[in-house]
Amino acid sequence: MPGYSNHQSGSALDLNTSARGVYSWLAKHGKAYGFRRTVPSEKWHWER
Q1: Where does 1-48 have alpha helices with state H?
Q2: How far apart, in whole angstroms, are the C-alpha atoms of residue 2 and residue 27?
Q3: pTM of the full predicted structure?
């Protein structure tokens, strides 16, 4: 529904995980910063 996106509220990010080292760093360190993958089919989508 429009206006209720986690992206709009600032709690979700779509990151360029195809860039070298980005996904591996997030997978290893994201949790320490409060980030986690919430959509299994989207490696780029991370939420806080």
Answers
A1: 6-9, 22-29
A2: 30
A3: 0.78
CB 11, CB 1: distance < 8 Å: no
Residues found in the chain: 48
Domain boundaries, the chain: 6-47
Find out whether 11 and 41 touch, Cβ atoms under 8 Å: no
Cα dihedral sign, 44-20-36-13? negative
pLDDT digits (tens, 9 = 90+) for 1-48: 667 788 888 889 999 999 999 999 999 999 999 999 999 999 999 999
The Cα–Cα gap between 34 and 18 comes to 21
